Amino acid sequence: MNVAVAKTDRVEAADETPFALARSRLPGSGAVADLRREAYDAFQRIGLPHRRIEDWKYTDLRALMREVLPLAAAPDAEALARAAAALKLHAIDGVRRLVLVDGVLAPSLSEFGDLEPKLSLRSLRDILAGGDAALQKELFGLDSNNPMIALNSAMMTDGVVIAVADGAKLTQPLHVVHIASGGAPAAVFTRSMLKLGNDSSATLVESYIAGEGAAAYQVHDSLVIAIGDRARLDHVRLVEDGREAFNITSSAIDVGSHAHFNTFGMATGALVSRYQAVINVAGEHSRVETNGVNLLNGKQHADTTLVMNHDVPHCASREVFRAVVDDRGHSVFQGRINVRQPAQHTDAKMMTRALLLSDDAEADNKPELEIFADDVTCGHGATTGALDESLLFYLRARGLPEKDAQSLLIQAFVGEAIESIADDSLRDLAIGAAARWLEARA
Amino acid sequence: MTALLEVKNLQVSVAEREILHGLTLTVNAGEVHAIMGPNGSGKSTLSHVIAGKPGYEVTGGEILFKGEDLLAMAPDVRAAKGVFLAFQYPVEIPGVATMTFLRTALNAQRKARGEAEFSTPDFLKKVREVAGSLGIPQEMLRRGVNVGFSGGEKKRNEVLQMALFQPSLCILDEMDSGLDIDALRIAADGVNALRSPDRAMVVITHYQRLLDYIVPDVVHVMSKGKVVKSGGKELALELEATGYAQYEDKAA
């Protein structure tokens, strides 16, 4: 009798995993369902990553996140209304807006009509639910050895799948906005894809924001990007999630030949965020610029983990990263550059600088260079320091109150990374996000 | 009439070592005072303490500015009240455009005084006008504050700020250091243009040369943390001939 009860308990416990609970609501059956099952098994083998896994040493999700919350409910009319209100504060002009509310594409808040020629937009949900087995397989192609990617593969419900055909130069940036509407604490799982054809160009902006009252929600997002030969992608991502939220995002980017990829990421929001990107520079004569800024205070924790793979010769990559950390904030930058034997004449550089505004602030920089080619230019540098007292005094002697003087110097410090954004209005968007963080601090 | 600046028996220490040993100085509106003295006599310490630089401990005495206790005010409050220190070594601030810095500083001062902020077109017009008279090219205003500026350009940028902020007390700390004669003349002309009956200047210098261009009403000799002699502008010429040695003996 006792044994039988214990057995029943165990079965019930297994059924209450977020995956089991959500299964009937996850789009796709047959092969897709099998791929989900495999991915979830891969996640369960490790579970939430912890500090004894080298790659997660500074971001122990088992301690920080503790558990994966249940899948969020699809947004109702009230949730959409709260999302619309939040969107107003973060709207930018001249973009095509594509909005996900609680992990579900919201056509009423998005602009799917009047597509430029050679641009195609589909929802991940539709693709997983029906047809195109090849594309489905591709969407599951991310590395499931990483437990958070595996979890995302198992649970992904929706996202934007964007294709830009050969030769198309999009004039309008695409703005993907993730909004947590502020319902009950829950988790969202999304995956988007962008395929840029040869000789094409596009600008992708991603914002993560929260509606009024959104608390301890979890964002689990991923992004698959393929950049064709001679194509150019400008990418900006701004994490402005609520101050109790988690944001774990993974991306995989393949860069063709003679291509140009410029990406900028900034975390001012979320309690805990991690952006892990793998960039494969797979075609010759290409250039990749990755720039990042973390602005953290309170108990905020933000981790940027980049892997830059140079597989072919004559490519260049630049990583510029700035962190400003106040109170008990914790910034992590892990940058790995792999230069494989054929990748001669690679020019790869990485520079990280951290500004610590309090005694309890922490910034960890971990550069790793693994170089198998012998004719390359590679380097990295890292500095950590406090605000320069002589500069602060100069500004105060000119009439700036202490916080204003600090703000001006902080803006200057992160400015070099923000300046890398080519488009004026997008640069202003990033400057605006930084300004909001500084104002909230004062 | 209340003096603009009254320094009374000021005693200041840095890292437990006393630098100023009871310094007294009174400056009235409309006057230009020169403070001369050998290296280490405490001239720059005095300018830093008036501006409110951290790291100095006032152990005795007081400083009154328009009758108010200056030492109780934060540096930015002093600036808004009209105290301006032209730095001996103006700092470089990469990433902060000179124009942005000037506008932010001026508006912070105006806000502290309860005045309306300058509108951008008015402000730009004003800056261009003053910069033009000082021979500061527009291109320099777009660069980071003092970044890539020569010594002379940095000092001219200080004079530009003085002209924009219109302070009632200007303290010029070794304005002549590192300047050639031409650069010195341009900076001095800028300063002279700001002489006015309701403004005072304190010119701190090691050499008499600067006082050929900015002619003082009163000259003070400082030695070992005190004012040891005061007189008219002829005192500066006398010092040029005899040197500081006699005063160092006197102070000791």
What does it look like?
- The complex is a heterodimer of chains A (442) and B (252).
- Chain A is built from eleven helices and 19 strands.
- Chain A is α/β, with parallel strands linked by helices.
- Chain A has one domain (2-388).
- Chain A has a ten-stranded mixed sheet, covered by helices on one side. Chain A has a nine-stranded mixed sheet with strand order 3-4-6-8-10-12-14-16-18.
- In chain A, α3 (31-46) runs antiparallel to α8, α9 (389-397) packs across α10 and α10 (402-418) packs antiparallel against α11 (424-441).
- The radius of gyration of chain A is 22 Å and the shape is globular.
- The N and C termini of chain A lie far apart (63 Å).
- By secondary structure, chain B is α/β, with parallel strands linked by helices.
- Chain B has one domain: Rossmann fold, CATH 3.40.50.
- Chain B contains ten helices and twelve strands.
- In chain B, β11 and β12 form a beta hairpin.
- In chain B, α6 (151-165) runs parallel beside α7 (181-192).
- The mean pLDDT of chain B is 92.
- The interface between A and B is medium-sized, with 23 and 29 residues.
Beta-strand level of the residues of chain B, as a percent range? 25-35%
Determine the structural class of chain B based on helices, strands and strand pairing.
alpha/beta
The gross shape of chain B turns out to be globular
| CATH C-level of chain B | Alpha Beta
The spatial strand order of the largest sheet of chain A comes to 2-1-5-7-9-11-13-15-17-19
Helix content of chain A: 25-40%
Terminus-to-terminus distance of chain B: 35 Å
Name the CATH homologous superfamily of chain B. P-loop containing nucleotide triphosphate hydrolases
Proper CATH architecture of chain B: 3-Layer(aba) Sandwich
- The total number of structural domains of chain A is 1
Largest sheet of chain B: 6 strands, mixed
Rounded mean pLDDT of chain A is 93
Helix content of chain B: 25-40%
Which spans of chain A of ≥5 residues are poorly predicted at pLDDT below 50? Answer: 1-12
Beta-strand content estimate of chain A: 35-45%
Discrete helix count of chain A: 11
Shape of chain A: globular
How are helices and strands ordered from N to C of chain B?
EEEHEEHEEHHHEHEHEHEEHH
